[in-house]
């Protein structure tokens, strides 16, 4: 019936459960007196509802009409930002909600927010179900806010204690009655007492002393006032007020006669707080026989100017003398350098002569060592039981290269399963042994000797401590001996055929460049247990490293270029291959390297001293 009544007479749509709830509370409500009922009847009569129907509804309808009147009132949606409420810094602020309520109306919920607020994270205070709540309230407002209600006036206000400067700004009040919500905006400003005024003399002008009073950090806009020693107000010459970061900064100027004696004061008032700050400056009487300001200025300026001229002359003389001294020192330094250069040139000539002699001896020794090593040549073959599944071995077991896929070979403890390597079939436990391997144009390979007991499963760290004595080529022009740490090898000519010499009793494993008949590197170690040749053709390196490693079946000729051709004798380019004893060939004359190349590969007693020298152009 109530719903039909609302629809018939133009009242807003109100859910039936709200009206029934209001009717159910009529016994607890204090709105059921005759005046409230009479008011309800007048409202229904103004909407065209018959008086009989209004009387039949009784006093219980008046409670529901409170909500209906709240819905029908034209409520403002926002406040005036320029009309603010002022509160002292550190004091208590009371912000009235601009939403008018019907007297004795109890809102369902009241929420105060910092506005504008795109989300609900700026909650200042929440009142719901008859009590204050702290769920979702900003931490800086917890414990400082309270909701004040005046049921008789129908007003709601927010109390903020211990007001801070950050509290100023817009606040949004949201009032909810039933399912309906209205909101409004109110502005809070914080009254701040600024800094103590600061007075300074701006200048003198025709018998007047110009003064400026400055202060900052005030709100609202303060009032500044000058007073002379007799307490009379002085007229300001200029009055500047600047708003910075929400606070006012002032600069007020005035003037007094230079004959004025006593304290001139500047007072800044905060009318909102009823407080002020004052600063005074004493203007003393001039001493007897006062001298004019121009005379004083000349008396000060002339001595200072004379001192500056003297100092300038002294600085110019000192600078000129410093330049002459510097020039003399530079001339002496050049003469000393020329003398040292002549001496150094003589020392370098002697050092070069000695290094050339040492180089000849070392190359001759290396050449003779390589020739002696070749006397112990052995024919080495590959052990297929140790080969990685992706390695392809030739039928004569002297060639090995990396294939594209793993081969169906039985797994055994002797087989490498991660490193693409293979061992020689021979075991060496004593004596001297020498073999040669053709590496051709390969860009990566690893050769040498390893212990029979080395690990062959998983990733392997090849060092002498782990039973590996290897030399490898890691790229087109980079070679290393796998020591710990690795030793970088500087080879003048890349080897196409590598000779490996093992002297078990002497504990020596040497590597030779058969192409240039030069020594590459030597390991020294005390061996125990069987040793085996080691071969690793490495990965394909983008198709540049697909050539096989070839074990030479016999000693190869050392004239460059040397290309080992195992078990192959015949004609090449029309020439007949002849078996000639290589020991009958004369030694190749040693090449003379630049000084830097000789110092680095062949250290001598002079090497440390020569490292820091610059080689002059002869």
Automatic annotation (TrEMBL):
<keyword id="KW-0732">Signal</keyword>
<dbReference type="InterPro" id="IPR003877">
    <property type="entry name" value="SPRY_dom"/>
</dbReference>
<dbReference type="InterPro" id="IPR007110">
    <property type="entry name" value="Ig-like_dom"/>
</dbReference>
<dbReference type="InterPro" id="IPR003599">
    <property type="entry name" value="Ig_sub"/>
</dbReference>
<keyword id="KW-0472">Membrane</keyword>
<dbReference type="InterPro" id="IPR053896">
    <property type="entry name" value="BTN3A2-like_Ig-C"/>
</dbReference>
<dbReference type="GO" id="GO:0016020">
    <property type="term" value="C:membrane"/>
</dbReference>
<dbReference type="Pfam" id="PF22705">
    <property type="entry name" value="C2-set_3"/>
</dbReference>
<dbReference type="Pfam" id="PF07686">
    <property type="entry name" value="V-set"/>
</dbReference>
<keyword id="KW-0393">Immunoglobulin domain</keyword>
<keyword id="KW-1133">Transmembrane helix</keyword>
<comment type="similarity">
    <text>Belongs to the immunoglobulin superfamily. BTN/MOG family.</text>
</comment>
<dbReference type="InterPro" id="IPR050143">
    <property type="entry name" value="TRIM/RBCC"/>
</dbReference>
<protein>
    <submittedName>
        <fullName>Erythroid membrane-associated protein isoform X1</fullName>
    </submittedName>
</protein>
<feature type="domain" description="Ig-like">
    <location>
        <begin position="76"/>
        <end position="187"/>
    </location>
</feature>
<keyword id="KW-0812">Transmembrane</keyword>
<feature type="transmembrane region" description="Helical">
    <location>
        <begin position="296"/>
        <end position="317"/>
    </location>
</feature>
<dbReference type="InterPro" id="IPR036179">
    <property type="entry name" value="Ig-like_dom_sf"/>
</dbReference>
<dbReference type="Pfam" id="PF00622">
    <property type="entry name" value="SPRY"/>
</dbReference>
<dbReference type="InterPro" id="IPR013320">
    <property type="entry name" value="ConA-like_dom_sf"/>
</dbReference>
<dbReference type="InterPro" id="IPR013106">
    <property type="entry name" value="Ig_V-set"/>
</dbReference>
<dbReference type="InterPro" id="IPR001870">
    <property type="entry name" value="B30.2/SPRY"/>
</dbReference>
<dbReference type="InterPro" id="IPR003879">
    <property type="entry name" value="Butyrophylin_SPRY"/>
</dbReference>
<dbReference type="InterPro" id="IPR006574">
    <property type="entry name" value="PRY"/>
</dbReference>
<dbReference type="InterPro" id="IPR043136">
    <property type="entry name" value="B30.2/SPRY_sf"/>
</dbReference>
<dbReference type="Pfam" id="PF13765">
    <property type="entry name" value="PRY"/>
</dbReference>
<dbReference type="InterPro" id="IPR013783">
    <property type="entry name" value="Ig-like_fold"/>
</dbReference>
<feature type="domain" description="B30.2/SPRY">
    <location>
        <begin position="360"/>
        <end position="558"/>
    </location>
</feature>
């Amino acid at each position: 019936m109530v719903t039909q009544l609302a629809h018939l007479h133009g009242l807003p749509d109100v859910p039936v459960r709200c009206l029934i709830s209001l009717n159910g509370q009529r016994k607890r409500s204090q709105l059921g007196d005759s005046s409230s009922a009479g008011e309800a009847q007048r409202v229904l009569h103004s909407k065209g509802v018959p008086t009989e129907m209004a009387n039949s509804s009784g006093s219980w309808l008046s409670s529901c009409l409170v909500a209906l009147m709240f819905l029908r009132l034209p409520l403002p949606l926002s406040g005036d930002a320029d009309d603010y409420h002022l509160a002292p810094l550190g004091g208590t602020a009371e912000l009235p909600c601009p939403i008018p309520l019907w007297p004795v109306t109890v809102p369902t919920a009241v929420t105060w927010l910092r506005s504008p607020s795109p989300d609900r994270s700026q909650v200042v205070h929440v009142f719901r179900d008859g009590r204050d709540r702290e769920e979702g309230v900003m931490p800086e407002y917890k414990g400082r806010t309270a909701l004040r209600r005046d049921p008789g006036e129908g007003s709601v206000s927010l109390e903020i204690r211990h007001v801070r400067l950050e509290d100023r700004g817009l606040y949004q009040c949201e009032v909810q009655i039933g399912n309906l919500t209205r909101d409004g905006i109110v502005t809070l400003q914080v009254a701040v007492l600024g800094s103590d005024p600061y007075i300074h003399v701006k200048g003198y002008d025709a018998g007047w002393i110009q003064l400026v009073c400055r202060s900052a950090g005030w709100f609202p806009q303060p009032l500044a006032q000058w007073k002379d020693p007799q307490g009379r107000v002085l007229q300001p010459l200029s009055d500047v007020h600047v708003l910075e970061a929400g606070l006012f900064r002032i600069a007020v100027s005035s003037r007094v006669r230079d004959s004025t004696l006593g304290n001139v004061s500047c007072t800044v008032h905060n009318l909102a707080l009823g407080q002020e700050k004052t600063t005074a400056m004493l203007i003393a009487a001039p001493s007897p026989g006062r001298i004019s300001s121009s005379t004083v200025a000349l008396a000060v300026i002339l001595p200072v100017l004379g001192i500056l001229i003297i100092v300038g002359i002294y600085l110019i003389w000192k600078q000129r003398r410093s330049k002459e001294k510097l020039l003399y020192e530079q001339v002496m330094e050049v003469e000393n350098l020329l003398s040292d250069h002549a001496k150094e040139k003589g020392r370098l000539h002697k050092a070069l002569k000695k290094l050339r002699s040492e180089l000849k001896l070392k190359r001759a020794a290396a050449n003779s060592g390589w020739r002696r090593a070749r006397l112990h040549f052995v024919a080495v073959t590959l052990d297929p039981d140790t080969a990685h599944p992706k390695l392809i071995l030739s039928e004569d077991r002297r060639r090995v290269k990396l294939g594209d896929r793993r081969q169906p070979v039985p797994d055994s403890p002797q087989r490498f399963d991660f490193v693409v390597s293979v061992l020689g079939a021979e075991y060496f436990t004593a004596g001297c042994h020498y073999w040669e391997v053709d590496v051709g144009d390969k860009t990566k390979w690893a050769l040498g000797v390893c212990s029979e007991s080395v690990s062959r499963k998983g990733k392997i760290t090849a060092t002498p401590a782990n039973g590996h004595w290897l030399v490898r080529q890691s790229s087109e022009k980079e070679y290393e001996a796998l020591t710990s740490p690795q030793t970088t090898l500087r080879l003048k000519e890349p080897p196409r055929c590598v000779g490996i010499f093992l002297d078990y009793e002497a504990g020596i494993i040497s590597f030779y460049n058969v192409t240039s008949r030069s020594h590459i590197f030597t390991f020294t170690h005390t061996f125990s247990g069987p040793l085996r040749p080691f071969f690793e053709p490495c990965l394909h390196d983008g198709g540049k490293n697909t050539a096989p490693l070839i074990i030479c079946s016999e000693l190869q000729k050392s004239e460059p270029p040397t290309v080992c051709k195992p078990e192959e004798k015949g004609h090449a380019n029309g020439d007949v291959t002849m078996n000639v004893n290589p020991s009958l060939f004369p030694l190749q004359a040693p090449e003379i390297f630049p000084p830097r190349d000789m110092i680095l590969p062949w250290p001598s007693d002079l090497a440390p001293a020569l490292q820091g020298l610059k080689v002059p152009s002869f």
